[in-house]
Amino acid sequence: MPSSKRESQIEISHHSGVGGPFAGLAEDVRKGLAKTPKELPPKYFYDARGAELFEEICELPEYYPTRTERALLVQIADEIVSRCQCSALVEFGSGSSRKTRILLDAMARAALLDLYVPIDVSEDQLRQTAYALGEDYPGLRVHGVVGDFGQPVEGLPEGGPRLIVFLGGTIGNLTPDEAIGFLRNVARMLGPEDRFLLGTDLVKDVVVLEQAYNDAAGVTAAFNRNILLVINRHLNAHFDPNRFEHLAFYNRDESRIEMHLVARESHQVSIDAVSLTVGFVKGESIRTEISCKYTREMVETMLEEAGLRLIRWNMDENRLFALSLSEAVR
Ligand code: SAH
Ligand code: AVI
Fold first, then answer.
1. What is the rounded CA–CA span in Å between residue 145 and residue 121?
2. What is the phi/psi pair of residue 212, to 5°?
3. Is 291 in the pocket of ligand 2 (CB under 6 A)?
4. pTM
5. Distance, CA of 199 to CA of 316 (rounded, Å)
6. pLDDT tens profile 29-44
7. CA of 285: how far to CAs of 39, 46, 50, 259, 306, in Å?
8. Band of pLDDT at residue 18, cut at 50, 70 and 90
9. Cβ(145)–Cβ(116) under 8 Å?
């Protein structure tokens, strides 16, 4: 039977150079594990299993950011779209794009929706999501980019006005310098009619914060240990995740949650692909993630420093999470 459904166009391209987003893993592991204290970049959590575990985290009772941001998006999506008149949505760290659908729906309601550009290191999830969106939004052009948002992403498809979004509080996983660098790249990308929507997790009661990263079901612990399995697979390493304890706590001085993997006993791990043997003493930790928490003032200062001007600020009534809309300063 001929279908009257408008065809969607799906395209996936790579922006991270030869070898894909895991190409830098060997160098990052070598450098990170030589530091004192040891650390690993959080982007390596997100192989297919890590992406699945993150989706589970989003549904946990203790993990308030996802449901809070989702409710905020439902509240403000139509207004933002009507104010921006955006026909293209560009998203950094798009993941499953579940919450993004709230914005896509608002753009479709306003009869503006034309182009969606999800950018993520997690290739399998990006592909699956792009094809699912193509099915669900007839006529939508989806141009997925497998790439690292730590690098300027160039050559994006034409379309607009554009709404560029960075949701979930993922900016908090960057150091303050990395966050400013990222925001400067966004400011450079923004044309006069384009806008930037940023999700930030807010400073709050320490108990609420720490519970969100220490869930009773142990999903966050599994997510944390998954980084070791990624290293085992890609670098022929011999980490035993059971020899590491999940640790997550709020560092008040730095205004951030820190996630660590702490060695339960002294032992050595060989990483064959980089001809390295790494020693751990009992209690020694690898910092696997930071997750910065902000006040409105901190967000505004960060935006300003990067050449962006805050034009709208929305928080939930419990002041857990915020969405801010900004434009480039000309
Ligand atoms: N935006 C979604 C997903 C957040 S999880 C939400 O709000 O629920 C963080 C996402 O960012 C993951 O999909 C992960 O693969 C991606 N990511 C992490 N570091 C990245 C990097 N350096 N470059 C591109 N994507 C990255
Ligand atoms: C993706 N990012 C915003 C999450 C966070 O809360 O920092 C990652 C995460 N780590 C543990 N739980 C969730």
1. 8
2. -65, -25
3. yes
4. 0.97
5. 12
6. 999 999 999 999 999 9
7. 8, 20, 20, 10, 33
8. low
9. no
